[in-house]
Specification:
With 187 residues, the chain is mainly alpha-helical. It contains eight helices and two strands.
Length: 187
Amino acid sequence: MFTDWHLLFVPALVATVLVFVASSIIHMVIQWHAPDYKKFSNEDEVRAAIRKSNAAPGEYILPHCKDGKEMADPAMQKKFEEGPLGVVYLRANGATKLGPFLGAWIVYTFVISLLVAYVGWSVLPRGASYLKVFQVIGATAWLAYAWGGPSDSIWKGKPWMATFRGLVDGLVYASLTAGAFAWLWPD
């Protein structure tokens, strides 16, 4: 059954290139994610406070509490009432070099393409119709590209509009992936 799944390597490469080009247009030309990123009005003070704490790269939550018992403490409750509540991601210091991010994105999209190829090859026969391949691959790719986002809005407070934009991005990427596989699906 899986002896010929290597025939999906070319559609996976094509899908990777299409998604890379589409994401570049979305992020660098259209820039429709620009509203997702806010600036602190006192950015220099915030940066100084974070530098002073000598925080390592990672994910931080404000206010931080270890467990439910600490969360019930009146002092912790006061912190929640006063605010702010949030999640902060920190990366390593230094100039942002786009190359490693783009390289990781290409690898990520190729892995997604290979995984959706595996799912498609597991349930679709050789010679499956364009529409059937598009449906199966498209739904699988959309799940992979986009549907982790809502959990960040639910649990981490990511604005729902940013999540919505991510779902639309994922739908575009999934459609391109589905189209590449449907076009090049083995006979």
